Amino acid sequence: MHVSDNEVKVVKNLEQLNKSVFASLLRMLSHPVINESKSLLDKTLSLISIVAIDLPVITGDQGKILKDEISNLVSVLGRVSSEEGTQECTNILLEMSRCHVSFRIQVLDDLIAGASTLGKKLEEQLRKLSSELKNRTKSEQDDSKKNELTVPAMQKLTSKNSAQGYF
User: Fold this and answer.
1) Is 79 helix (H, G, I), strand (E, B) or coil?
2) Which residues contact 137 (CB under 8 A, 6 or more apart)?
3) Whole-angstrom Cα distance, residue 32 to residue 51?
4) Residue ranges of the domains in the chain?
5) Which stretch, 59-63, 96-100, 135-139, has highest mean pLDDT?
6) 81, 86, 90, 105: most buried by Cβ count inside 10 Å?
7) Cα 31 from Cα 44, distance rounded (Å)
8) Is pLDDT larger for residue 98 or for residue 132?
9) How many CB atoms lie within 10 A of CB 130?
10) pTM to 2 decimal places
11) What is the DSSP code (8-state) at residue 54?
12) What is the gyration radius of the CA atoms in the chain, in angstroms?
């Protein structure tokens, strides 16, 4: 499908960006159907990433648009399970931070909050693991020397999308 130059709408300010296809796609990330399907989430992130490449640099506008969408995107970054999805999400956030200073501030604030949340989850998982290891009896420890040491809390720490994987 060919799109003529007359059909392409160039975004020149934040208000137009808020009404653009890019903003609509970002809003779709909060839809339950997209969030329930890892494949659909990855494909949506890929599409948004392609559109984000052409985001213009907007100067002079004031305002807080797409705040919820940026927060949701950072949240998606914390739970996306594929390397491609993580990369696409990162690219979108990077392109948005280049587009406008208010986006850059919002992205940084949300990433710091997200890192703090992941750190708290990791701390909780490590405390649980430590507790489980301390509660093992001497005989269990002797038996486990022959086999690999396994405790239930290890699964959350060693899974592909565990919290420490993001650090």
Assistant:
1) helix
2) none
3) 22
4) 14-121
5) 96-100
6) 86
7) 11
8) 98
9) 12
10) 0.74
11) T
12) 21
